[in-house]
Amino acid sequence: AHDEYYRRVAAMGRQGCQALQHAHDVGILHRDIKPSNLLIDADRRLFVTDFGLARIETEPALTATGMIVGTLRYMAPEQALVQGGVVDHRVDIYALGASLYELLSLQPAFAESDHARLLMQIALEDPTRLRKLDRRIPLELETIVHKAMAKEPRERYPSASAMAAAVEQMTVGVDHISK
Q: What is the DSSP letter of 59?
């Protein structure tokens, strides 16, 4: 039963990556990826919804404006710090990783309720390793999620399609991950 659940989460992750890559390919950043914006239909197809905070990647507003945009709990460290610098497609990769973290562990990566402390946790602390919370989580899936959630954008997957490829390469096997 657990193996099937992890396969489904991996399949959702792969589909989420494919949807994000499509948006990124046309220059759109979502900026508010979270579990409630990942909808699954009866055929287990994932849809990324609510592009209300999306921006065109070339718009100047994507660089630091001193404004926090997005749902705090799934926000990338560079968004949480609001220090300046470019916010790019890797914020969506981080947020998808944080969403998958929550789906796998059934708890958020950072659970602080105070907004200022939550932002500091996101910016400065690493989430608890998934397999420390549940040893049944496949090591490959843990590795993918934690890479997606790396503090430094350059340490994350360079693209959503690269993350999707990593999910497809899992030793659980492509045949086992529903397409």
A: S
DSSP codes of every residue in 107-170: S-S----SHHHHHHHHHH-PPPPHHHH-TTS-HHHHHHHHHHT-SSGGGS-SSHHHHHHHHHTS
CA atoms of 6 and 110, how far apart (whole Å): 21
The whole-model pTM stands at 0.86
Name the DSSP class of 15. H
Catalytic: 92? no
pLDDT classification of 1: cutoffs 50, 70, 90:
confident
Catalytic residue among 32, 43, 92, 175: 32
Tokens of 109: 């990566």
Of 120, 93, 119, the residue nearest 17 (C-alpha): 93
Whole-angstrom Cα Rg for the chain: 15
Is 13 within 8 Å of 173 (Cβ atoms)?
Answer: no
The pLDDT confidence band at residue 178, using thresholds 50, 70 and 90, is very low
CA dist 132 and 56 (Å) reads 38
Token pair belonging to 122: 């996101």
Other CB atoms within a 10 A radius of the CB of residue 64 amount to 15
The tokens for 47 are: 């849809």
